[in-house]
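Lecture 7 notes: from sequence to structure.
We start with the chain below.
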Amino acid sequence: MAVPPWLESLLSTAFFTVCRTHEDAARGECNMYCLDCKGDAFCFYCRSSKHKDHQVIQIRRSSYHDVVRVTEIQKVLNISGVQTYVINSARVLFLNERPQPKSGKGVAHICEICGRSLLDPFRFCSLGCKLVGVRRDGNASFSLEAKNEVLMERTRKEGMPKEEEEELREGSQQDIYLPTPPPPPSNARRRKGIPHRAPFGS
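Predicted structure tokens for the same chain:
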């Protein structure tokens, strides 16, 4: 399946409207999207009551455009080829293309679909442009399996031993948990009590 069934709905959803059910609540803006229900955007409180055990991603805003954190979307979607940005210390990518005046002559990298200038040698400026590229050319994919196959092919070309390749394959199918480091040794000097000044001699 080249395109997930929820992707088009996500890209066409209006976010950051006020939730009708929780319009007076502090976190009542609709900035959540459920990949299982593929419906409208909803707020923090609706997630707790209606989408508790579902796959939900949170949409954020940057310069009036919708973005999603890479750490969230890459769990469910192959985002290779899409330009990412660091905003407020988090790596994000844009959902849809952003209008831009025609790029100048000195631009090194541009989006294959809309022509927007890019910072790095990526193919697309957003998930929306990648969707157009997948449907137009077929030489890009949103499938995580396809991404894993590319990784496997790269390791074969670079001559990685078969045992390490198998570990990489297994690691791509499950979460990798690092052991918790041991606490630091408690050899720091501690004060034994409140110091008392010696009485003055008479």
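Points to note: The first strand starts at residue 32 and ends at 34. Strands lie at 32-34, 56-62, 65-69, 85-87, 90-94, 109-110, 117-118.
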